[in-house]
Specification:
single chain; Helix Hairpins; 4 helices; Elongation Factor Tu (Ef-tu), domain 3; 15 strands; seven-stranded antiparallel β-sheet; 415 residues; alpha+beta
């Protein structure tokens, strides 16, 4: 039994010794296979590292000498149009987002009250002109009267001088008893009467001069009344002209808030008009402005128009940070101070033709890229202000009748 046990256990003891070399023989090929894997891993890491280096080099090559920010938007002029008189709206010749031309008739207000005021002003002017003509006639009569009075004074003065000479002769004749007392007394009375006539005519001249002055004063007053009536007529004409509201500029209508039949008042915003001119306001950090100059070229990418780079240039810098012009600017003299990098608004003007900027609208986000390495760059396209606005009928352009005739108007009274 023991021999058989030894016999069985012997193979069992040998079996590990026989498997040992087999196991060792299998490990050797795996070790040989792990070397290519390690090499491929190192090669992959090297390729990734090289790609990162190349990417960093490309990024540095593309961005060295440039400053960019995503804190930038497109800006445009926004004109809020409001009436200058209170009235009901008779007709509205546009709708939201309409493209209008400078001088187009956009809104008509009820003109009847203003037409009545105009007729009254015209009547007042006619009355003032009539009074002026009357005053002119009175002045002419007074001028003629003073001429007659002066002629009468001269005539009476000559008669008085003649009577005084007769009196002196008759006095000598009376003393020499050539004439009697009755003739002498008659010459004395005649001389006194002629002197009294001279005094009377002199007073008439004085009175007539006063009449001339009065007529001149009345003429001046009438002339002033005429000018006042003309001013009132002009005011009435202006008030009537304010019942028609024209487009002050070319542009697109936005935020329309008026309909036919509404009652509008001065200062009430009826709609906003946005001209086609656009530009970019980019809020760069103050640390980015070291090498930035006016005229440097800019490449602008617009989020709403991906894949397009718009050419532009730096136009101007705001003389102060954005925080300085807020409603409540920071007050660093009180409390704890924490330094924060400030941002300065920079105006960027496009160099593209207007036809390429039609899709750019106010408020859209953009990302400008300023070539600060170009210190000698300049552009001859400067930002221009808007032209004078058209505010009345006399300045309007020719209205397209067919387009406006097709639009309805509100009924504001009996026809």
């Amino acid at each position: 039994m023991s021999a058989s046990s030894v016999t069985v256990s012997a193979p069992t003891l040998k079996s590990p010794s026989l498997e040992g070399p087999t196991s060792a023989g299998n490990t050797s090929p795996q070790a040989a296979g792990s070397k290519p894997k390690r090499f491929r891993r190192l090669l992959l890491l090297g390729a990734v590292g090289g790609a990162l280096l190349v990417g960093a080099a490309v990024w540095y090559f593309l961005n060295a000498g440039y400053e960019t920010t995503d804190d930038a938007t497109i800006e445009a002029h926004v004109i809020e149009v409001s009436p200058k008189v209170s009235a009901h709206v008779k007709a509205v010749h546009f709708d939201d987002n309409y493209q209008v031309k400078r001088g187009d008739l956009l809104i008509e207000l009820d003109p009847r009250d203003f037409e009545v005021n105009l007729a009254s002003a015209q009547a007042n002017l006619a009355s003032a002109k009539s009074k002026l003509d009357q005053a002119q006639a009175q002045q002419n009569v007074a001028q003629a009267g003073i001429g007659q009075a002066k002629a009468d004074l001269a005539s009476s003065q000559a008669t008085a001088d003649n009577a005084q000479a007769d009196l002196q002769r008759n006095e000598h004749l009376y003393q020499t008893h050539v004439i009697d007392r009755r003739e002498y007394d008659a010459s004395v009375a005649q001389a006194k009467s002629d002197v009294a006539n001279v005094d009377s005519n002199a007073k008439k001249v004085t009175s007539q001069e006063a009449q001339v002055q009065l007529a001149a004063a009345l003429f001046s007053a009438s002339s002033a009344e005429e000018k006042q009536a003309e001013a009132q007529l002009r005011q009435a004409e202006l008030q009537l002209s304010y019942t028609q509201i024209y487009a002050p500029f070319d542009g697109r209508v936005t935020k329309k808030s008026v309909e036919p039949g509404n009652y509008v008042q001065p200062g009430q915003t009826l709609f906003s008009l946005v001209p086609p001119d656009v530009w970019v306001i980019a809020n760069f950090k103050e640390t980015q402005l070291k090498n930035m100059r006016v005229g440097q070229p800019v490449s602008v990418q617009v989020d709403a128009v991906p894949g397009n780079d718009f050419k532009a240039h730096v136009d101007s810098f705001q003389v102060g940070t954005g925080g300085r012009f807020t409603l409540l600017p920071p007050e660093n003299a009180t409390g704890n101070f924490v330094k924060v990098v400030q941002r300065v608004p920079v105006k960027i003007v496009f160099d593209e033709p207007a036809s390429k900027l039609e899709r750019l609208w106010a408020g859209e986000s953009v990302e400008p890229k300023v070539n600060v390495g170009n210190s000698t760059a300049h552009s001859d396209r400067l930002a221009q202000p808007l032209p004078p606005a058209i505010l009345g009928e006399s300045e309007q352009s020719e209205v397209r009748g067919d387009w406006y005739a097709s639009l309805p108007t509100a009924i504001l009274g009996e026809r």
